[in-house]
Design goal:
alpha+beta, binds adenosine monophosphate, five-stranded mixed β-sheet, eight-stranded mixed β-sheet, elongated, 35% helix, 16 helices, 431 residues
Amino acid sequence: MRPTKIPVFFSTLPGVCMSFRAPKGTDDVLPPESRRWRELLRSWDLLAEQYGYAYVATPIFEATDLFARGVGEATEVVEKQMYSFRDKGGRHLTLRPEVTASVLRAYIQGGLSGEFKGAYSGPCFRYERPQEGRRRQFWQLGVEYLGAPDAEADLEVIELGYRYLLDCGLGDVVVHVNSIGDAPDRVAYHALLSGWLDERSHLLSKDAVRRIHTNPLRVLDSKADREVVADAPVPLDYLEGETAAHHDQLIAGLQERGIAHRHAPRLVRGLDYYNRTVFEYIPPSYAAAHNAVGGGGRYDGLSRLLGGGDLPGVGLALGLDRILSAAGQSPPARALDVFLVVADQERRSLAHAFARRLRAAGVRCDLVAGRRSVKAQFRAANRRDAALAVVIGAEWDRGMVTAKDLSSGDERTIPAGEVAAWVIGGPEGGR
Ligand code: AMP
């Protein structure tokens, strides 16, 4: 008898004996780390609001041309790193590799005018060789200050990012700052730099040679060519009148505001749209290959490039993934304030009503679904990382509950109405 052949469709049935993994270069954010993650996002929202930035959300994908024009055809991001595809209608779309071009597009499309201060946070996508601090999906937190040509706007943006990073625990962060001049300054300077690089093309990397005439500025911060370009002419030495004054004002402001900074004459940044100020936040203790946790700059020509009017702008983008690795994991706060343990099952609906009251008072509170032994509920309280277990038993009839601090084991019977105060002020908080 011939052996029975198993039809192919049996072995390819979806979901049978298959395991899935997140795509290469992407990460899941799970508890307990996700609590720190949420904390950082919340404090970003709060700080941006305190500085007067309103929340902006834009689509995660945009027309490919927006980035080709906005970020620049000759940039590494556009040349090599974009997740681009055609949709079923034949449109060329790209998962956003950054957010500034989208915010500008939204401002122009929305018919907005004058000064505008927008803040955002969300995922961006770049096809990178994955390693620590270089992910294919990563989160950026950013602000854009549109319509303000003055160096005071640059200073505000830099200060906001600096404050945020200090608050995140990156106490040693230093702002590396440079000016790459305005477009007219750059015509002469580019010619000078291209000529200088041309003379040394035999010493340069392949990528650098390719960029001599398309994007010579980028050669200045090419790691592979560091030694060759160490003596190259730098943009700062060729700034004229107003551009030079803008930079001087910026440096004086950084000093006055006590912002730790360093002049970085070869810093140019990877995106084409910048003019004048460019900066990066570097925490020296963060030893990853790409140790900037954020950066930004001024982009006065971007609006015109995208079909808008003359509109100066300055902004920054911070990378949440890098901030988290640079700051290390500080022990996250407890996941829950209170876990209710129902000693007498007939009091379950009372317990649910009590949970609703506590939640309304701002307490993070939970209990198991369904009937379980008291021991199992205590186990759940510990597993769920609650600070306090509150037992609802016979004493409830006298308006009392037994509260147990799950760290110290301290236990006392207190009025039910004082649980919220204990959560906020500790065992004496209710007194
Ligand atoms: P950029 O404008 O490219 O300098 O990006 C601003 C910030 O976003 C960087 O300083 C990083 O913190 C973060 N970032 C950029 N690309 C990545 C990536 N591939 N993975 C993780 N973070 C990134």
